[in-house]
Amino acid sequence: MHQSKLDFFCKLGYGKQDICKVLENLGQEALEDDVLKELIRMGSKPQALENQAQPSQLKLVARGSCSTTLPLKGLGEDESDASSSLRPIVIDGSNVAMSHGNKEVFSCWGIQLAVDWFRERGHTYIKVFVPLWRKEPPRQDSPIADQHILEELEKQSILVYTPSRKVKGKRVVCYDDRYIVKVAYEKDGVIVSNDHYRDLQNENPEWKWFIEQRLLMYSFVSNRFMPPDDPLGRHGPTLSNFLSKKPVLPEKKWHPCPYGKKCTYGNKCKFYHPERPHQAQLSVADELRAKTKVPSALGKEKERCQCSP
C-alpha cells in the first residue's frame, strides 16, 4: 500500500522525501486526497511546475551554426546601424508650410512631403515644430490647408506644438525658432528651413557655428521637396554626407593629361601622366634651371681646389 501511494504521487511529479514525510504524519492508511492536501499545504510543487518556473538556460541557435550562444545585439542590428549613421532631422514646420503655400497659405501638405522625403532616406528621428495656435480653426488672415495632417503627424509623435496662450484676448506665442535650434543643437542634427536665424546666431556663438554648418535649405518643385545636392556650396560636402554622421570620402579619380608627353606644366599639371609615375614632375623651365646649376656648381668647386694650394 505504501509503495503504491509513493509511485502514484511520484508520477504526479512530487518528490519522494515530501511524500514520505506526509505519509509518516498522516499514516500509511491516509486517503490520497488528504495526502495531496498536505503536500499542497507544505508548499511542495511538482517538478514539472518547478522547471517551468525556472528560467530556461537553453538558447536557440540558428541552423548550421556551431556556436551555442547568440549575441545580444542580434535582433535589429542592421536597422539600428543604418539609422544611427543618419543625423536627426528637425523641421521648421511654419517655414516649410508657408513655402509650399507660396507664402499665402499655411500648407500642411508641404510638411508631409518633407517628412516623407526623409523617411524614404531612412531617417528615424524626425521632429516638426509648429506653433500651438495652428490647431485653431483657420481665419481669413491666416488660412490653413489640409489641417488634418497636423493631427496625423502628432499621433505619430513627429509633430510638436510650441506653447501659446491668450491673455486678455491677445495671443502670447513662444518663440518656436528657439525650440528648433535648441533641439537640433542638442541632438547634433540638421535644421530644415530657409530661415537664417540671424537673431539666434547673435545670441550664442555656438549656435552661430551650428546654424552655419547644419542648416539645410530646400525648394518645392511641382509638389516635390528638393534640397540642394551641395548644401554648403560647390566646395562643401554632398547631400548624403551632409545628412550622415560618418561621411564617405569619394575616391580620387585621375584623368590622363590631354597633352601627353608634350605637356610642359610638370608638377603643376593636375592630370595624370602614365609615362612618369616615379619621376619628379618638373616643368621644362625647372629642368633647364636644374641642368644649368649643376655645371656652374662644378666649376666653382674646381676653382676652389686650384686656389687652395
TrEMBL record:
Domain C3H1-type: 256-276
Family annotation (InterPro entries): Rege-1_UBA-like (IPR040546), RNase_Zc3h12_NYN (IPR021869), ZC3H12/N4BP1_RNase_Reg (IPR051101), Znf_CCCH (IPR000571)
Gene Ontology cellular-component annotations: cytoplasmic ribonucleoprotein granule; nucleus
Pfam family name, one: UBA_6
Chain intervals annotated as zinc finger (C3H1-type): 256-276
Keyword terms: Endonuclease, Hydrolase, Magnesium, Metal-binding, Nuclease, Zinc, Zinc-finger
Superkingdom in the source lineage: Eukaryota
Keyword Metal-binding applies: yes
Gene3D superfamilies: 3.40.50.11980
GO molecular function terms attached to this record: hydrolase activity; mRNA binding; RNA endonuclease activity; zinc ion binding
Cofactors named for this entry: Mg(2+)
Family in the record: Belongs to the ZC3H12 family.
Protein name: ZC12D ribonuclease
Gene transcribed to yield this protein: Zc3h12d
